[in-house]
Amino acid sequence: MVICIAAVLIELLLSNFVWLSFVAGKGEVSDYSPQLTEAYVNGEVNSFALAGIDLPVHSVSYTVRTVDPEAESLLLTAAYYVADENITGSAALAQRERIAVGPQERRVTSYISSYGNASYIDISFEDLKTELVVTDIVLNPSYTAGFNTLRFALIYTAIVFAYVLKKNKAARKMISDVTYTQAGIISVVLCVTAAAIVWIMNASGEEGNCIVYPLEYGVENYSPYIQQFDAFMKGQLHIDVQPSAELLALENPYSPDERFNIPFLYDRAFYGGKYYSYFGIAPVLTVYFPIYFLTGFLPVDSTVTGIFSVITAIFLPLAVIEWAEFRKKAQPWLAAVCATGAYFASMVLLVQRGVAPFYYIASIAGMAFVSAFLFFMIAAIRNRKTVSGIILMVIAGMCYSFGFMSRINAVLPVTFAIVAFILIYLAASVKRKELPRFFGEMTALGAPVAAALVFTMWYNNARFGSPLQFGTAYQLTVANTAYYEFYAGGIIPAFFHYFIQPFRTGDMFPFVQLEYFRLAGYGRSLYIDSNFGIFAVPFMLSLLLSPCVFKSKKVSRNGKIMLGVALISFAVTAFADMCMGGVIFRYTSDILLFASFVSAAILLEMQEIAREKYGKKIDSAVKKGVVLLAAATFVISAAMAVSINGNLEQYSPDLHLALRDFFVFWS
Question: Which residues contact 306 (CB under 8 A, 6 or more apart)?
Answer without folding.
Answer: 195, 196, 198, 199, 202, 203, 352
